[in-house]
Amino acid sequence: MEFQPRVFQMFGGLYPRAHQPVEPKGKGYIQVLLKALKERNVPIRTNVRVTEIIRETPVSGDVRGVRCETKEGVRWIRARQGVVLAAGGFSANKYLRELHDPRVKNLGTDNLPNQTAGDVMMAAVRVGAYLVGMDFIQSTPGAPAGKKMKIILNTKVAESIYVDKRGSRIVDEGARRDQIRDAVLATPERYAYTVVDNETYESYNSAVHSSVEEGIRINEAWTAPTIRELAQKMGVDPEGLEKTIDRYNNVLVKNQKDPDFGKAPRNLTKRIEKGPFWACYTGMTVHHTMGGINCNTKAQVLDWQGNVVPRLYAAGEITGGIHGTNRVGGNAFLDCMVYGQIAGINAGKERRA
């Protein structure tokens, strides 16, 4: 897996500890893992929907396998050793996410559209698994209601700012994700904008550039040689945005202090001054569900009394209680990869049935 050498503070990361993959949008991880699977002749079955987890009795005994629905019909798969659940979270399940956090009502999601989101988690509940932290749901910048594209120019918090329609800055860009969500949704429009200069824009990868180019085509992103012209294209107050950028560069960055929102000095190192300038909408979309199946440090699934559900393991976003109320940016990688490895190793150590 190849990463870029620079370490930076990503959106919601709280500290400079992020390593950007060379390949965008998760492709690097998938390529490495697929190669390893092929080398070991591990089969991958697609279009197989798990609908039930099979246990000796509904709430006792070993987990023995799963019931699946395929294009050919129902299929029963027996587990010789353990079963690992890694089906992700329930951000794409509109009913579940709004049931547990009404604040996300009418927001979209940047997760893959998935009519079965949460199905495997609830199948685990039916064999005794207990759910924790279900009310903790995280949002990240994305397309506002009525807009088409999620465009990301906010990843590098030391190099971007959020402004509202009046051109005023609204939050510490290095704050927790829930604080940024609340600040964006508190604007009269329930959306904001991200502004960067050309040096920052050029530092992003081809996937970001492609989304911005498409955004410009449909008037959801903008570029201009001056801040005033950029504001006019955005529909933002030009004088307000000019005043905000001037204050940010010549007061906050110059003095390494943010009296407005408390942005950390380590994130006040980059002036926004090299044109052309770039901007995009920053609405809010549901991104990550911190709640899910309760597990121990061996990745074993636990019931409502803290007892292990034998031969059942879970890893990644389907689990709960790992991230508390707010997942710090980048930590899902460890949640998936580290607990995925722990779950796989321990499931493989189960005695053969």
Question: Mind explaining what this structure looks like?
Answer:
This protein has about 350 residues and is α+β, with helices and mostly antiparallel strands. Helices cover about 30% and strands about 25% of the residues. The chain is built from 9 helices and 16 strands. The strands form 5 sheets. Strands 7, 9, 10, 11, 12 and 13 form a 6-stranded mixed sheet that branches. Strand 4 and strand 5 form a beta hairpin. Helix 7 (about 225-235) crosses helix 8.
Keywords:
alpha+beta, 353 residues, six-stranded mixed sheet, single chain, elongated
Order of helices and strands: EEHEEEEHEHEEEHEHHEHHEEEEH
The helix/strand class is alpha+beta
How far is it from the N-terminal to the C-terminal residue, by CA? 36 Å
The number of helices is 9
Cα-based radius of gyration, to the nearest Å: 23 Å
Beta-strand fraction estimate: 15-25%
Unreliable segments (pLDDT under 50, ≥5 consecutive)?
A: none
Largest sheet: 6 strands, mixed
Q: Round the mean pLDDT to the nearest integer and report it.
A: 94
Coarse shape: elongated
Counting DSSP E segments of at least 2 residues, the number of strands comes to: 16
Q: What is the helix fraction of residues, given as a range?
A: 25-40%
